[in-house]
Amino acid sequence: MTESSQDNDADLEKGRLLFAGPWAYVMSAGAVDGLPPRTGIEVAFAGRSNVGKSSLINALTGQKALARTSNTPGRTRELNFFSAGPALTIVDMPGYGYARASKTAIGAWTRLIFDYLRGRSNLRRVYVLIDSRHGVKANDIEALDVLDTAAVSYQIVLTKCDQPKATALEAVLAATRLAISKRPAAHPEIIQTASRTGLGIPELRAVIAALL
Predict the structure, then answer these.
(1) Domain of life of the organism in this record (predicted)?
(2) Which of 71, 78, 139, 162 has the fewest Cβ atoms within 10 angstroms?
């Protein structure tokens, strides 16, 4: 076994141990004055409605129903906090891009997200989920603009990578790399995942563990 492969195995094991604990729902917040006290570090998951945020969080934590999943776009309208201890908290952010929501609701969600991003000093990274079947959309670009403006480190996670054909997936990867290539707050590495098969879940756990 080479040194690099040993390091990789060690990183994967750190990630496995970090997420092996009994994860639990902490609380939901619809306004920044209702946020929980800052404890350890936080990582947040953002993405278009129905991109698979809840399914990914459930896969990461090894639980089937920690985060609610729904076929109804726009169901998550608050910041939802989950934790397995003081070291790490996962934040499920409201999905964006749901056209049927009222302008008032969309405005409220946007303010909540931006205020959270700007004011949460222990937020280490936002993982922006992109559906690999569709690639980066206009609403995703708007979200990346917000993250760049807020100067919050973020990383792209492609979801449902078990569904597109290999050539289509490669095209989405190339287009996504191009979309983030000149963005100041974007992490250059793109993580490919599939919640149904477990693809990329150990690697994403290891990346999050490295932030500690």
Answers:
(1) Bacteria
(2) 71
